[in-house]
Design goal:
Family: Belongs to the Mediator complex subunit 27 family.
Main location: nucleus
Number of strands: 6
Helix content: 40-55%
GO cellular component, one term: nucleus
Protein name: Mediator of RNA polymerase II transcription subunit 27
Order of helices and strands: HHHHHEEEEHHEE
Number of helices: 7
Low-confidence stretches: none
Keywords: Nucleus, Transcription, Transcription regulation
Strand content: 5-15%
Distance between the termini: 54 Å
Radius of gyration: 39 Å
């Protein structure tokens, strides 16, 4: 790129010197040439300017000769049609296109650096060491658990909370679907894959319970959204039973949905809704606007 910049600079200087020649010819003999011998002074000035043009032309030829010939024609693509655009507003597209090319080059450069750095680190998504995993059998994943083990875990959770009734069905094969009734406050359907929670829908007490439709009440639609966040928060591939117990404990905390006030503002209602958020650690109730 340096020889190209040098050649462009030499051409710019040559154009300036040629412009000075034409300017001198346009002005002709001036008053500052004096009264005596002004024609000779004018010719002498013009000769100097022409000599300067000759020297600058040699510089351009030398700079151009130092350039290497491109291996082939440049692929301009659709950008070649920009030269035919006569609208003043669209002529600025070329400068924006140059900026986008520079941005793309930086992305390629940063990507290459990232690949070099990441290749030096053995990133693993497993909780076990690869050397020990080769010597022993891999542990059973959370989505591949026998139905008997799932029933045992759900039965123990059902006994843990007397005011929460949990029934198990398997309409889609071996995977369980839990129908949860929490006092007379709400009901929920929880779809499991092994011991991994995949989907949760919360509805009001007395509504038709299924996996495909939302509740007609805004309060339970909001609790459904928060249940999805809790489902992801408590997810643990290494301890799936603890993950399910933690989620069900969090869901059980909504038994005081319409009675406990918000721990932040102290009000029962905010924007016509009760506290629909429960803290993952303390299980304290908060409004959506007060949880942050």
């Amino acid at each position: 790129m340096e020889p190209l910049h040098t050649a462009l600079g030499a051409i710019k200087v040559l154009r300036c010197s040629v412009g000075q020649v034409f300017s001198c010819l346009a002005n002709g003999v001036r008053a500052d040439h004096g009264e005596e011998g002004r024609d000779a002074k004018f010719l002498s000035e013009l000769d100097e300017l022409l000599s300067s043009v000759t020297q600058h032309l040699r510089d351009v030829e030398q700079a151009v000769n130092s350039l290497s010939q491109p291996p082939g024609p440049f692929t301009l693509g659709n950008t070649s049609f920009l030269s035919q655009e006569c609208t003043q507003e669209r002529q600025a597209l070329y400068s924006q296109l140059v900026l986008s090319y520079k941005w793309t080059d930086k992305i390629h450069e940063f990507s290459n650096l990232s690949v070099a750095l990441l290749s030096q680190n053995s990133l693993k998504r497993s909780y076990t060491n690869s050397s020990t995993a080769k010597r022993r059998r891999a542990p059973t994943s959370s989505h591949n658990v026998p139905p008997q083990n799932v029933d045992t875990v759900i039965s123990s959770i059902d006994r843990q909370f007397p005011d929460m009734n949990i029934s198990v069905s398997r309409p889609f094969g071996a995977n369980a679907v839990l129908q949860v009734t929490l006092s007379r406050v709400l009901q929920a359907v929880v779809a499991l894959k092994g011991l991994m929670i995949e989907w949760v829908v919360v509805k009001g007490y007395g509504e038709t319970l299924d996996l495909w439709s939302e509740s007609r009440h805004k309060v339970f639609r909001k609790i459904t959204e928060n249940s999805h966040a809790a489902m992801l928060h408590f997810s643990s591939p290494t301890m799936p039973e603890l993950a399910v117990r933690s989620f069900m404990t969090w869901l059980h905390s909504f038994n005081t949905l319409f009675s406990d006030p918000c721990k932040r503002c102290g009000n029962h209602l905010h924007s016509a809704l009760p506290p629909t958020w429960r803290d993952f650690r303390s299980l304290e109730p908060f409004h959506e606007e007060c949880k942050h």
